[in-house]
Design goal:
The structure is a homodimer of 362-residue chains.
Chain A lengths: L5 H8 L3 H8 L8 H14 L5 H7 L5 E6 L5 H16 L3 E6 L4 H13 L4 E4 L10 H16 L3 E5 L12 E5 L2 H15 L4 E5 L5 H16 L6 E4 L4 H23 L9 E4 L2 H13 L9 E3 L16 E3 L2 H9 L10 E3 L3 E3 L14
Parallel strand pairs in A: 1-2, 1-3, 3-4, 4-5, 5-11, 6-7, 6-8, 8-9
Antiparallel strand pairs in A: 10-12
Chain B binds a DNA duplex (16 and 16 nucleotides) through helix 2 and helix 4.
Chain lengths: 362, 362
DNA sequence: CTGTTAGCGCCTTCAA
DNA sequence: TTGAAGGCGCTAACAG
């Protein structure tokens, strides 16, 4: 049994569908007050719910914002989703959700699905890749987005522009100064830490990770330090955990070795390219008996909500995740001219990189 | 500029729209191979994207699943959302997201919006309330859902049935044995813990919280213990934090007092009605210098993903959150007969309730 | 196997 | 101010 239609309401109210339509939606001005009353009563008694699908067909706008994330249960993405949702709310739109599990090939499918539903705009979060194996997916995604924009759709991307996408009308990037912030972080750490540095990054070709690695190295260089060793691993907690396991023994050995000569000066400092990875690293280290910051320092990136109650308190770079989502869901940058909003982050040092003498640590 | 239409494709291919439609979608069987080829090429060259809106209008199904949560950034809800998304994926549907910030009044609005978009089904997560002030919202929500179901919509609710909703066709509850599990938890804790118990619950009338409080008390009673004191606070981290602050001084005082007589036997055990609240409590306690489990034991409920890396490891009741979402998004219970699926949970004891002698603790 | 016809529910010209 | 007519893009019946 289908819902009642505008025609039924009109018939019951003894008016034409057109009139009913004018009353029930804000078409210019509501007709005669008496008529309006009748129509409204009829609609009410029938439990009339306007068919947004049909409305969307005749109007241009569908009132939908498409959102693409890797995993909605990941705190990084759910924070961004929260921001997108806020924009949607204040614009009286709804959010359509698609998840890709990080598979680039699924992105263009999602875009096509959104385009098919005539979403007013699309927000893409999640790291871009320039890896050889993703060339095909990138091309497909770029083509799909291009077409979508050409048809009047708006696209907001969090982080990097989609690889290969032409800077078409309606294409909008919320840029994150990953490199600069990573450099700042490195500078801050270098100012208090004298030991070696290790970077735990995602596989090369993941732009977000690459930027952060590059920035961190640049920061070290600027401080006159040698480049950090780079470990490549999965861009998630599991990847971090594996990297942590790989590092643990070395750290313990080094600690033993140094015990004799003098002090804990040699404890290394780890930079994980995001908090989720950092958390995985810490978990592995803890499992192996390595203590932070006693035996090793560590910093992450993003400042996800989870960190609020994570111990040891993790040094990181705070990103305004919700605002990034909010901005990406808007139709374009605040200032006209370039299709690019740039947000700002902030280095946040916490206990995980405190370099107080080891003897004072528990 | 609008996207190209089926008619354009048909014209370019020199066939009728009907034929083009048959080729581009799986209508029975694709027409002549040569024709099909032509149509496909035409569609390709025009960058044709079928208009799902129009398709939804003529067909019954819109391919949409509506999901209502309090806050998508809350790990409890994002885990459920993940499950819903999984079902959506395997059914080739998309998820429409609505958030209410816990405001019951927003729920019926969201349902109406979903109904307007002709969502195939709606999933509602988030605690039901029987508080007086929510009577109106409950009634509106029940009415809206009823109408939606009558029109052929399917509703899946996580936790409690919507207050006042008639058990209509298409209405489906994924029941959580909150009371039983809380009782089990109490029993387990009572078997190793001899001190007093304190429950930190949400305001009375929030069904999930009420069930857990009741179950916990029942479990204590079954173990021959007196009922726990119940503290009412907000059903979120902030509420937990405030409750924690309120408890901290008393715990410290009690600890001092007991120091003289004998041992740490009197340290209390806190049961927070969910993990998020428990985390807030722990944060407050930590800020006040109260250590867990040295000075106080604490357990939560849900086993959200965040707990994986939370220290001290928090005792809790594990709920299959993703599966709950998955089930709620299915059209009905596995076994026919009653519109009710019941999932099962499991008490998980971790360090936060370990009762080893205080002297062995760090 | 293909093309024609008739709507799905609604809005927006137009004419009255 | 109100009603009638046409069409948004697509599909499902019918014809041919």
């Amino acid at each position: 049994m289908a819902a009642s239609t505008l025609a039924e309401v009109a018939r019951l109210a003894g008016v034409s569908p057109a009139t009913a339509s004018r009353v029930l939606n804000g078409s210019a001005r509501t007709p005669g007050p008496d008529i309006a009353q009748r129509v409204r009563k009829a609609a009410d008694s029938l439990g009339y719910v306007p068919n947004a699908t049909a409305q969307g067909l005749v109007k241009a706008s569908s009132g939908l914002i498409g959102l693409i994330v890797h995993d909605i249960a990941d705190p990084y993405f759910s924070a961004i989703a929260h921001g997108v949702q806020e924009t949607a709310r204040e614009r009286h739109k709804m959010v359509l959700l698609a998840t890709t599990d990080g598979t680039p090939g699924d992105e263009h499918t999602a875009v096509a699905a959104f385009a098919a539903r005539r979403a007013d705009s699309i927000v893409i979060a999640g790291s871009r890749s320039t890896r050889r194996e993703d060339d095909g997916s990138n091309a497909q995604l770029a083509a799909e987005l291009d077409r979508y924009c050409r048809n009047g759709g708006r696209v907001g991307v969090v982080g990097h522009p989609v690889v290969g996408a032409s800077a078409a009308e309606g294409y909008h990037v919320v840029a994150v100064p990953n490199e600069e912030l990573a450099a700042e972080l490195a500078a801050e750490l270098a100012s208090t830490h004298s030991g070696g540095f290790v970077i735990i990054g995602a596989p090369e070709g993941l732009l977000t990770s690459d930027d952060r690695v590059r920035g961190f190295q640049r920061g070290l260089a600027a401080a006159g330090l040698p480049p950090a060793e780079v470990l490549r691993t999965g861009f998630n907690r599991t990847g971090g955990y594996e990297a942590g396991l790989a590092l643990a023994q070395g750290i313990l050995d080094a600690r033993e070795a140094v015990q004799t000569p003098g002090g804990a000066a040699a404890r290394p400092c780890i930079f994980a390219v995001n908090d989720v990875v950092a958390i995985g690293v810490v978990a592995a280290l803890r499992a192996k008996g390595v203590k932070v910051p006693r035996d090793v320092l560590i910093a992450g990136f993003d400042d996800i909500e989870t960190l609020r109650d994570f111990r040891p308190a993790l040094s990181t770079v705070r990103l305004p995740l919700e605002e990034m989502g909010r901005l990406a869901a808007l139709d374009g940058p605040a200032q006209a001219g370039g299709a690019r909003d740039c947000i700002s982050g902030q280095v946040v040092l916490r206990r995980s990189t405190e370099t107080v003498p080891a003897t004072l640590e528990q």
